[in-house]
Design a protein that fits this description.
- By secondary structure, this protein is an alpha+beta fold.
- It has a single domain (16-74, 90-175), classed as Trna Endonuclease, Chain: A, domain 1 (3-Layer(aba) Sandwich).
- The protein is built from two helices and eight strands; from the N terminus they run αββββββββα.
- Strands 1-2-3-6-7 form a five-stranded mixed sheet. Strands 4-5-8 form a three-stranded antiparallel sheet, with no helix packed on it.
- It is globular.
- The model is unreliable at 74-79 (pLDDT under 50).
Length: 176
């Protein structure tokens, strides 16, 4: 008699590694659907995806987030007597990406030039991907979460497509 295997619960918490892998697969799918050749690398590399474009290999570092978070860091009023607080701003929802090494074993979490060429920033809930080259990638990046409240400030995913990143990389390559 065959044993029944109980399926895992769909509400199981995803680990950081699971979310990272989901982002990597989403980047590969996004690039493939745009006509590019991209493949995931092994876990011990400094980059997650390798992109082949016109015979040039580009290293892609992937950073993923599950959903936008409310940002209320500028909402607190001053508690010091006699000092007016900052005017309260409305809450905003945005995707936040920490562009640092994720492993606790890395004492210096800052990426160095040569670790990757492109940083792919993935919003898993909406399956949006933004691509930034190494030179323009800060340690903390925010993107608008327009599905919750229309907003006009901040970066938009659609402004950071792969074509833009490749154009910037090719310009930089020609200057050298």
């Amino acid at each position: 008699m065959a044993r029944r295997i109980r399926p895992t619960s769909p509400r199981r918490q995803s680990s950081t590694l699971d979310l990272g892998m989901a982002g990597e697969y989403l980047v590969c799918a996004d690039l493939a659907l745009a006509g590019y050749c991209a493949h995931r690398t092994e876990q011990h590399y400094r980059y997650d995806v390798i992109l082949d474009h016109d015979g040039q290999l580009w290293r892609v570092q992937v950073k993923s987030t599950q959903a936008p978070k409310e940002s209320n860091h500028k909402r607190t009023a001053s508690t010091t007597p006699g000092k007016p607080g900052r005017p309260r701003k409305p809450l905003s929802c945005r995707y936040s990406f920490h562009c640092e090494r994720g492993l606790p074993s890395h004492k210096d979490k800052t990426y160095k030039e040569g670790d990757f060429d492109i940083c792919a920033l993935v919003a898993l809930d909406t399956r949006q991907v933004a691509y930034m080259i190494f030179d323009e990638t800060p340690r903390l990046v925010h993107f608008r979460a327009e599905q919750f409240a229309p907003c006009t400030s901040g970066r938009a995913f659609e402004d950071f497509g792969i074509e833009r990143a490749l154009k910037l990389l090719n310009r930089r390559k020609r200057k050298r």
